[in-house]
Amino acid sequence: MGEKKRREEAKKTEFIFERENYKFMLIGIAFIALGFILMTGGGSDDPTVFNPEIYSWRRIRLAPALVLIGFGIEVYAILLNPKKKD
Protein backbone atom coordinates (compact mmCIF):
# COMPACT_ATOMS: atom_id res chain seq x y z
CA MET A 1 0.00 0.00 0.00
CA GLY A 2 2.79 2.46 0.89
CA GLU A 3 4.73 1.61 -2.26
CA LYS A 4 1.75 2.50 -4.47
CA LYS A 5 1.37 5.86 -2.76
CA ARG A 6 5.06 6.66 -3.23
CA ARG A 7 4.83 5.84 -6.96
CA GLU A 8 1.85 8.15 -7.36
CA GLU A 9 3.71 10.95 -5.58
CA ALA A 10 6.78 10.36 -7.74
CA LYS A 11 4.71 10.72 -10.93
CA LYS A 12 3.52 14.18 -9.92
CA THR A 13 6.20 16.60 -11.04
CA GLU A 14 5.64 20.06 -9.71
CA PHE A 15 7.62 23.00 -11.01
CA ILE A 16 8.87 25.68 -8.68
CA PHE A 17 7.73 28.50 -10.95
CA GLU A 18 4.57 29.01 -12.95
CA ARG A 19 4.21 29.96 -16.62
CA GLU A 20 4.10 33.68 -15.81
CA ASN A 21 7.42 33.47 -13.94
CA TYR A 22 9.12 31.88 -16.94
CA LYS A 23 7.64 34.52 -19.25
CA PHE A 24 9.18 37.31 -17.17
CA MET A 25 12.47 35.39 -16.97
CA LEU A 26 12.67 35.20 -20.75
CA ILE A 27 11.91 38.92 -21.04
CA GLY A 28 14.70 39.64 -18.53
CA ILE A 29 17.16 37.46 -20.42
CA ALA A 30 16.25 39.28 -23.64
CA PHE A 31 16.98 42.66 -21.99
CA ILE A 32 20.32 41.41 -20.67
CA ALA A 33 21.31 39.95 -24.04
CA LEU A 34 20.32 43.13 -25.87
CA GLY A 35 22.39 45.19 -23.42
CA PHE A 36 25.48 43.06 -23.99
CA ILE A 37 24.98 43.16 -27.76
CA LEU A 38 24.78 46.97 -27.65
CA MET A 39 28.04 47.09 -25.65
CA THR A 40 30.04 45.28 -28.34
CA GLY A 41 32.16 46.96 -30.99
CA GLY A 42 33.84 50.33 -31.07
CA GLY A 43 37.31 48.88 -31.06
CA SER A 44 40.06 49.54 -33.54
CA ASP A 45 41.84 47.04 -35.77
CA ASP A 46 45.11 48.86 -35.23
CA PRO A 47 46.10 48.98 -31.52
CA THR A 48 48.05 52.21 -32.01
CA VAL A 49 44.98 54.13 -33.25
CA PHE A 50 42.44 55.38 -30.72
CA ASN A 51 38.77 55.15 -31.67
CA PRO A 52 36.56 57.54 -29.64
CA GLU A 53 33.49 55.51 -30.67
CA ILE A 54 34.14 53.26 -27.67
CA TYR A 55 32.80 56.08 -25.46
CA SER A 56 29.52 56.48 -27.33
CA TRP A 57 26.26 57.09 -25.49
CA ARG A 58 24.99 53.68 -26.51
CA ARG A 59 27.90 51.82 -24.88
CA ILE A 60 28.26 53.99 -21.77
CA ARG A 61 24.63 54.72 -20.83
CA LEU A 62 22.06 52.68 -22.76
CA ALA A 63 23.61 49.20 -22.72
CA PRO A 64 24.42 49.07 -18.97
CA ALA A 65 20.96 50.46 -18.19
CA LEU A 66 19.36 47.66 -20.23
CA VAL A 67 21.45 45.05 -18.42
CA LEU A 68 20.45 46.42 -15.02
CA ILE A 69 16.78 46.56 -16.05
CA GLY A 70 17.08 42.96 -17.21
CA PHE A 71 18.48 41.88 -13.85
CA GLY A 72 15.66 43.75 -12.12
CA ILE A 73 13.12 41.89 -14.24
CA GLU A 74 14.82 38.60 -13.32
CA VAL A 75 14.55 39.38 -9.60
CA TYR A 76 10.88 40.28 -10.09
CA ALA A 77 10.28 37.02 -11.98
CA ILE A 78 11.81 34.99 -9.16
CA LEU A 79 9.85 36.78 -6.45
CA LEU A 80 6.55 36.81 -8.37
CA ASN A 81 3.88 34.58 -6.84
CA PRO A 82 1.17 34.00 -9.47
CA LYS A 83 -0.77 31.64 -7.17
CA LYS A 84 -1.64 34.53 -4.88
CA LYS A 85 -5.15 35.73 -5.66
CA ASP A 86 -6.18 39.26 -4.71
Structure, described:
With 86 residues, the chain is mostly helical. Helix 2 runs antiparallel to helix 3 (57-79). It has helices at 2-11, 19-39, 57-79.
Count of helical stretches: 3
Q: Ranges with pLDDT <50 over ≥5 residues? A: none
Element order: H for helix, E for strand:
HHH
* Largest beta-sheet characterization: none
Percent of residues in beta strands? under 5%
Q: State the helicity in percent bands.
A: 55-70%
- Class per helix and strand makeup: mainly alpha
Distance between the termini: 40 Å
Shape assignment? elongated
Mean pLDDT: 87
- Radius of gyration, in Å, reads 22 Å
Number of strands: 0
Draw up the topology in text.
Layout: H1 2-11, H2 19-39, H3 57-79
Helix pairs in contact: 2-3
Summarize the structure.
This protein has 86 residues and is mainly alpha-helical.
Summary keywords:
63% helix, elongated, 86 residues, mainly alpha, 3 helices
